[in-house]
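fyi for ur records
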Amino acid sequence: MILFNQETKTFHLKTSKTSYLMKVLETGHLLHLYWGRPLKSENLDYTVRRKDWFSFVANTDNIDAFHLESKEQEYPGYGSTDLRSPAIELEFADGTSATDFRYVDYKVVDGKPALEGLPATYVEADKEAQTLIITLTDKVKNVDVELSFTVFEEYNAIARSVKVINKSADDVKIQRVLSANVDFKDSKFEMIQLSGSWARERHIIRTPLRIGGQCVESRRGASSHAQNPFMALVRKDATETNGDVYAMSLVYSGNFLANTEVDMYSKARMQIGINPFDFTWLLKAGEEFQAPEAVLVYSNEGLTGMSHTYQNLYGKRLMRGVWRDKARPVLINNWEATYFDFNETKIKEIAKQASEFGIELFVLDDGWFGERNNDDRSLGDWFVNENKIRGGLKKLVDEINGMGMKFGLWFEPEMVCPISKLYEAHPDWCLHIEGRTRSTARRQLILDLSRKEVCDYIIKSVSDVLASANIEYVKWDMNRNMTEIGSAVLPAERQREVAHRYMLGLYHVMDEITSRFPNVLFESCSGGGGRFDPGILYYMPQTWTSDDTDAIERLKIQYGTSMVYPNVAMGCHVSAVPNHQVARITPFATRGISAMCGNFGYELDLTKLTGEEKAQTKAQVAFYKEVRELIQFGDFYRIQSPFENNETAWSFVAKDKSEAVVSFFRTLAVPNDNLATICAVGLDADAIYEDMRTGKLYGGDELMYVGINVPDKVVGGIAEEGTELFAGMPSPVIEGDYAAFIWHFKKVNK
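which gave:
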């Protein structure tokens, strides 16, 4: 709901659990008044105060004791009387960059307008949301800024975006255009970010705010393994279930900035948007520039409340297509089983074994095309290598379909190898700067997706392959970040637009291909989790969470990813030991339970499993299918953090609280340790639940407040409970390093 009080010039944006208020001053400046728990009143005029700061801060409009620098603003510019970090910075034809944006008018529309060329949240009916569009103008330079605020009342989120409109007769250069800015009256917060590197993405980092700037950003041409386009400010006492959380998530896959500045008066300014670093956009007279969308979430129910808001909104109103609400298949991927060393005989052997386990999808990874026998050649040559796959792709697909399995295929369409037919024909199609080294990573270069002909080539070549056989799944990979960012066709004054134009080209390519093949399940990958962001989720409803398949390292990766992203978006696989990334040896059951945190699959040579491992695989697949929809679409609760404890626990609870799965992990064994219990979260305290493994009955209140006994070894070496963990498999005890256990509860009518 969006309300406007004409008398006080106050905007009140109301979701089911949040109020967000802004006010237009008599001077035309747009102030931020409040963001937090729901309010009844729109009149917060008493919070707008003046003070003579006795400092070097300039008076705004030369009004005594009126300083924009001391005010909470909604979309601050730079160069007049606010010298803090701006949300927008422009360079005008006269070389100056001072701006002064003031209120002109507003309009409210039902529903949510799309953002041209960009991914964004959406509505399925206009009644689901309202959108407020506020126009600010710099009268001297004749440039407008449109601020859009979409209020998802039931989803409890506010989506923000910005459009810059050049109404002047001169060119304007955009140097900085962030998507959201929120000023707070204090800085008593801690900042949460999701950071890491390849193979250890999205670790949770929580640090106190300090005077000055704190930011997370990417300058890599992708949202990156190192940082995620997300930031939360939380009160110092905030926990998983209690306390105030203010979060921003950017629906964008390229260079971003998430910044918090604490000024000299200890007031915090929170911002997110395209990274101004190495960015300029030439805006000709009459042209518009649309910035990406930022999604703002406030929770007074701690981090879990924030996460559920993002997970629900992104799961239902960001992800799209027929697979949005469909249960995802259990898969086998051949990458860690064979790498490049395979032929159709080996692939069919793995597929045949997989079909006997009840696995539903076979994914053929890198190495099926061109002359691709290692990673030094053939990216860009999207035709089948019939020396490996005799008889062609369709024959192989038909044979695997005949085993009762779907077939999926790996692509890396955004890249080209210098040793390839594509590069020989079009050496200027890659990002490069004339005269400079074309630096390779993984022996590949990046195609210039700012060019229409390059986008057209990708669309046609990938579409031709997908149309050639019954391919029902695509793993879309991207394995390097940008260097020597330049385009052979753009003029000099537009070279700093290349990184953003690349993203616009990528979004066009993804939109076109996914629209042509609406029944294909697309999974994004970027060396694992290097582009696990909301922008890609708009086109591809799941992402390979990390190239690190180690069950223990995955605890932190999956735990951190759950801060923002839905369970159903996470790809999680069981792999061989010693693990190929960290050489750790973990029990097969632990690997299975760790991978049951999203879309479940295997990435190892199933033909080399022992008899016991084969029995466990069959049992794991059967169990996962039983709880699949609960795990993929239920509410996720973080119970014990791997960043703080030797023990990790999480759970999945059905929306109606009728069912739950609880997972427990102990990283290292502790001698003579206490017996462990885990308290479930999110159940119906008044209900009775049955442990589906043992048949025992528990009250929901017992499970949440007393806890569940974790099986442990007792005197005489007898397990506490000798029943089955998975059907047909003996129940392990929690003993030794890297142990895990899983429970399945269902509400009963008793």
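The longest helix spans residues 611-633. thats all i got for now
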